[in-house]
Amino acid sequence: MSRAPSIRQRGRPGGRRRVAPLAALALASSLLAACGGDSGTPELVWYINPDSGGQAAVAEACSTDEYTITTQVLPQDANQQRIQLARRLAAGDSGIDIMSIDPPFTAEFAEAGYLAEIPEDLQQTFRDQAFESAATAATWEDQLVVAPFWSNTQVLWYRKSLVEQTDLDMEQPVTWQQIIEAASANDATVAVQANKYEGYSVWINALISGAGGDIASETERGADAQVDIDSDAGREAAKVIAELASSEAAPADLSIAQEGQAAATFGGDRGAFMVNWTYILNGAGYSDEVVDDLGWARYPQTVEGEESRPPYGGIGIGVSEFSDDKELAVGALECLTSPENQALNAELTGNMPSSEAGYDEQKVQELFPGDLLELFQESLEAAAPRTASPYWSDISGGIQSTWHPPSGVDEQTPGQAKQFIEDVLQGRSLL
């Protein structure tokens, strides 16, 4: 694989057993709805996740004589973003017009009635524009409820000098077992995200999806969803985690590793392989030696011969049901998520577009080598979004509680996870 010099540049069934997560926040919330805005040109307030200026630049680009768009920054932690938005929306706060929403919380917000309806013609426009994984992540109960903005996926980053010492052919699909064995045999590491946090659930979801399974299904039934994690696919995922955790390739900080720690491990003397997001190299601060030694390949296969399902992440933009300027805000979505503005955001943040048209923009074409851009798009086409459920926070919490630490994972873990998740959903256990 070639080196990357430019990387350094720059609907609601009855009979639920308990109150849904956001409904519970609504009951607990004591916040008051915001007062009306000033007269004159409407100001649409867009609550954004922290970035390096991309969303603010897009907001400015989409401001018109009819309205201006300003931004307010949410907390860094995704779950804290969810909580802040949910508490305010539960109170009917009209001070939020537009929101950047992490994919695992989309169904939750839609089910709670917090998202304004997107007209059918606009839904179709956004679907036609987006990668299939991005459209899937933006959909709840057959309705596209947020507009896909940027989409993230993971690839397998590797050190070419290490691979040259093995018999691996990185032009062909590789398995988790193969890279673990190769790293172990060469006193090297495989860097992943395995702290007790959402990123660990992302890895587990990708492993299970790559083995042909799902974490849960029939999620329209809410708390009565079918929990599918105790399956052959679940056990294949557990096998991969157990193999890495017990191998010489396990980093010393495996059980507390998030994206940044994985990047640091990969850049160290024993770095060999890493799974991580498209944006990770922007701020990694790698030396020229590491950059010159950098290669990339498709996300590893869980089961040899079965296509891998890389993780899906990103941001969808939704409109608050309680906005005083709801129609204007819905209309602004088309500009905010246009290919041109997806590219502008990518240029400033490294968060890649949710559409092929966004990748075709010159700004994006200049960010990375052509074969890496092709790999990102191929990975997005095959990516596995997390299970769409209003109860994803509970499901993910149940996974983290039973699959962490990685050193404790074995063939019994999927069954333990299924039981605990069902108990949490039915109110028999607490996270």
SSE inventory with pairings:
Layout lengths: L20 H8 L14 E6 L5 H9 L5 E6 L4 H13 L7 E4 L4 H6 L8 H10 L2 H6 L1 E2 L2 E2 L2 E13 H4 L12 H10 L3 E3 L6 H13 L5 E2 L8 E2 L4 H14 L13 H9 L3 E7 L10 H5 L1 E4 L14 E8 L6 H11 L2 H11 L6 H5 L1 H4 L4 H13 L9 H12 L9 H13 L6
Parallel strand pairs: 1-2, 1-3, 7-10
Antiparallel strand pairs: 3-12, 4-5, 6-10, 6-11, 6-12, 8-9
Helix pairs in contact: 1-3, 2-14, 9-10, 18-19
Fourth-level CATH superfamily of the largest domain: Periplasmic binding protein-like II
Which structural class best describes the helix and strand composition?
alpha/beta
Query: Would you report the number of β strands?
Result: 12
Oligomer: single chain
The appropriate CATH architecture of the largest domain is 3-Layer(aba) Sandwich
Distance between the termini: 44 Å
